[in-house]
Amino acid sequence: MLKRFKAFLSFLREQSDYLEKTVTLDDKTYHFREVFPKDIKALMHVQQLVYKEYQPWHRGAFLSELYSIHIHRYLCVSVHKKIIAFIGIRVVGSDAHITNIAVIPTYQNKGLGKQLLAEAEMFARQHGCQTMSLEVRISNSGAQRLYTTFGYTTRQVLTEYYSEGNEDALDMVKQLK
Hints:
Elements: H1 2-14, E1 21-25, E2 28-34, H2 40-51, H3 59-66, E3 71-79, E4 82-92, E5 95-103, H4 112-126, E6 131-137, H5 141-149, E7 153-162, E8 167-175
Parallel strand pairs: 5-6
Antiparallel strand pairs: 1-2, 2-3, 3-4, 4-5, 6-8, 7-8
């Protein structure tokens, strides 16, 4: 019985309302699509390349998000069928919270982060959100610049937010009009 229920959940999860997109940036073609449970290993590899020794999310955290009862979307970007970036967004009330975003270093500063944020914002607007929010490490000035350029402002500093290294985070928010 449990096997059939898991198969049913898997079937439901594989049904996506996100239409795949192909985007060309600097003469390179990128494919955007929804994330499925079968992609978790690749997402964890992206995290490993981005965060080095620190793995912020484990398999269970990704599964929890992908099967969450909250309105959510996880998108990945691939080149030649290899996942190189992803973003997660969860809607709670009138806020769309970016739960995770990562682009492997060799593909950073090529516009993928902006494109992922734009996709997330479109999703937030479709769900009537008034704000978008996220947390970012104090030491991650590159990401902070991206978010500021995209209209995010710092709401507060979260002291020792990240357990790894007890690093502070900026709680950032963007008002959607």
